[in-house]
């Protein structure tokens, strides 16, 4: 869902929403990212389910923890 390595318009709204939900120095990701890096040793803290602009359904967001 990208064009020339850039997020498509559909994803841009979701990225802005996720960024607005993040606290200072916090990195939020979807559960899809967590699943993709399984076994890497990266830990995550649940930040709840959210509706993201332009994407159907609710998505679980997680904060990357150290």
Question: Any overview of this molecule?
Answer:
- By secondary structure, the protein is α+β, with helices and mostly antiparallel strands.
- It has one domain (2-65): Nucleotide cyclase, GGDEF domain (Alpha-Beta Plaits).
- It contains 2 helices and 5 strands; from the N terminus they run ββαβαββ.
- The strands form 2 sheets. It has a 3-stranded antiparallel beta sheet with strand order 3-5-4. The chain has a two-stranded antiparallel sheet with strand order 1-2.
- The longest helix has 13 residues, at 9-21.
- The radius of gyration is 12 Å and the shape is globular.
- The N and C termini lie far apart (29 Å).
- The model has no long low-confidence stretch (mean pLDDT 83).
The gist of it:
The protein is an alpha+beta fold. It has helices at 9-21, 31-36; strands at residues 2-3, 6-7, 28-30, 43-51, 58-65. It is globular.
Task: List its salient traits.
66 residues; alpha+beta; Alpha-Beta Plaits; two-stranded antiparallel ribbon
List the helices and strands and how they pair.
Blueprint: E1 2-3, E2 6-7, H1 9-21, E3 28-30, H2 31-36, E4 43-51, E5 58-65
Antiparallel strand pairs: 1-2, 3-5, 4-5
* CATH fold category name: Alpha-Beta Plaits
Give the termini distance in whole angstroms. Answer: 29 Å
* C-alpha geometry: globular
Mean pLDDT: 83
What order do the helices and strands follow? EEHEHEE
Rg on CA atoms, Å? 12 Å
Total number of beta strands: 5
Known CATH architecture? 2-Layer Sandwich
Superfamily (CATH H level) name: Nucleotide cyclase, GGDEF domain
What is the overall number of helices? Answer: 2
Helix content: 25-40%
Level-1 CATH class name: Alpha Beta
* Tally of structural domains: 1
Structural class: alpha+beta
Largest beta-sheet details:
3 strands, antiparallel
